[in-house]
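=== Structure Prediction Worksheet ===
Name of assembly: unnamed complex
Input type: mixed (protein and possibly other molecules)
Chain count: two
Listed entries:
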Amino acid sequence: MESKIRNLIKDALLNLKIEINDIVLTHPEDFENGDYSTNVALAIAKNISENPKALAEKIVREILRLNVAKNIHKVEVAGAGFINFYLSRKFFTDSIEEILNKGENVGKNDTNKGEKIMVEYTDPNPFKPFHIGHLMTNAIGESIARILEHSGADVSRANYQGDIGLHVAKAIYGLLQDESLQNKMLSNNLQAMNIGKAYSNGAEAYETNENGKKEIDEINKKLYARSDKKINEIYHWGFDVTMDAFEDIYTMLGTKFKFYFLESVMADFGREIVNKNMGKVFEESDGAVVFKAEKHDPKLHTRVFITSQGLPTYETKELGLTQEKFKTNPNMDLSITVTATEQMDYMRVVMKALSLIHPELENRMKHITHGMMRFVGGKMSSRKGNVVTGESLLADARGAIMEKIKDRDIPLSEKEQIATDVGVSAIKYSILRQSIGADIIYDFEKSISFEGDSGPYLQYSFARANSILEKAHAENILPDFEKTPEEVFEIEKLLYRFPEVVLRSASLYEPHHIASYLIEIARSFNSFYGNTLVVNKDDENSPYKVALTYAFAFIMRTGIQLLGIKTPEKM
RNA sequence: GCCCUUGUAGUUCAAUGGAUAGAACGAAGCUCUUCUAAGGCUUUGAUGUAGGUUCGAUUCCUACCAAGGGCACCA
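=== Predicted Assembly ===
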């Protein structure tokens, strides 16, 4: 419809011999002003020195002369010279029918068709806990991956793990100090928790205990050299345990990675790249190997790639990683990396260095950054009083939801699954509801609320629609488009816009447009079924209202899934 | 000091250069009692400051103020 109106305007302007490159067509915020609106008259009035309102009238007359479509029932001039289009009942009825025909494919588009895109996100480190920051990166990365898939891209998910370095040495020191933490009879999850404890003990020792610091540095060297048999054994066990524990979290979150890259491996690749480009891109300075990025862009700065000790830094590993991504995934069109904003500046330097080495990759790397997750009222500790980790937050949310639904008439095993899915939704939605980039002030109570602006509220609206559809099914009222009410419901004026919202989210890599849209249609649908009885044998429009409910349910489910959230049928 | 990100109702967030700046929570009031009252309907209230560009600026530009992050051997 959008392109139809666009062409209509274009033809009208052509007939009036007015030239314009760019026709802006929007949805007015207020339905009083129609379903589509254009400002062309305002934009060109000055150039051809004519009164905007008079010009708009002229354009409207031309549009009305051209228009034979049944889908537009009114075009008029309003305000300073806006041209507003009012769509007809037939258009909305047809759009609902189209949504039902598309079903789960609603909102799919071809803008990224055939493109190979890799999205790297989450990136937790073995031997360390899964933090809320990982939760945040995961929520954003997963949603972007799904949105791009919905736009036709061939997306592969990648995860990058810091499998070696000081943090590992700290954990191993902690495990050596307290061997009870190495108990291998426990469940994988508990073993992973013990390793997390060992890590925080080791981290503390590194700060406060001089001997501890010395020993940890020693362990670190042995780890790089792989020279100590006992340490190697602990390393392999700990690596497997923590990686398996992460895998459980990914399942809960709904992420399945295709590629796993390890820092230790990337370090070697990166070093090779640096060596090959010494003198060309990299240079020596104070015994270290650096890249003076400010020579190429005054907004960038110098960074160290190989330390004076001869060790590769994170920058070098990133270099190796990016090159490796393009090697393992040939003909890749775009490599997206999702991290916190604190890595923005250094990533710019790394990408600049790589662009000098591989100019063809310059426009195929994209870094998406997000803010930090903060808690309302400052610091928050988990229910058990510990520091909040990603895992404890998930557990708390899940527990709180379980408490809310404990009296409902649903089998226990189902309830547990619902509590998990709704708990994940509470957290993910809080992250995805706002534009990425700024910090998030996380409010636990609001996030798990079933009303207002929350993930559970979206899921709940979907569940309510489902229960209406179940009732319709039981009373044998099937969706139909023959009889329609004369009035067009607000929800109809919103549902047909879903594909546009997906398109926008995909082109900007911004999931929050989908989140706000879903809240809008949820509110509108609640208002719809709060004011009318959908399933009603005495209402000749009931089959159409059932169709409308189906359309809402399809879009709601698809939209929620694009956020990376699951959609329980009941709750 | 330089660079990046961000300043919008009491609070947490929206708004491809457009019309009366939109939600949610909170607060006040009303309401069906029918498909989950975890509902529906009202009311309340905001663009950090000062300039500039524009027919029109929350949006673009400049300066300032405030918050967060980064700036040589950590990741």
